[in-house]
Amino acid sequence: MNKVLTFFSGMLLVILVAGCDERPGASEAPKASLQDTPNPRRIAIDVGLIVKDMDASLAFYRDLLSLEFVTELTTSLIGKGQMIQLRHGESLVKLVEMEAPPVTESPAGITGAFGFRYITLMVENIENIVAKVEREKTPIALELTELGNGAKILMIVDPDGNIVEFVQEP
Prior knowledge:
The chain is α/β, with parallel strands linked by helices. The chain has three domains: 2-36; 42-104, 2,3-Dihydroxybiphenyl 1,2-Dioxygenase, domain 1, CATH 3.10.180; 110-170, 2,3-Dihydroxybiphenyl 1,2-Dioxygenase, domain 1. The chain contains three helices and eight strands, in the order αβαββββαβββ. The radius of gyration is 21 Å and the shape is globular. Residues 1-27 have low confidence and may be disordered.
């Protein structure tokens, strides 16, 4: 904790000193980012999904979408359950099946409620995903669409009704 405070205190000092310098351009504070933290391990956004049926979720995320298996563990931090972590790029999709399942479900669809409604996976060949989705008859929330900037998107539905979007940039 002290190292973190020292780091941020040092950043504040650098910003304050930079603001007092009389040299041209010196009033621009240095731009800090998460990558500037000491020894970053990975820069990513992980997502945790509470699932009804781990086998169905693995068939979807690991087998259909080809996310790479990382590890399996028992969790008790959020309640007792089984967690399987899968990798997409630097990010993890953490599937969690609870021993005592939730009693409520999220409303269906992207606009069914406030908050996190879908995840986006950046891909290099969206046509491969389309072929797999069609072959497996996976529910589609938004057909393959090409945007004005040349990006292509596709949205599908996982076994628990969550939306997974794929984007291929031009």
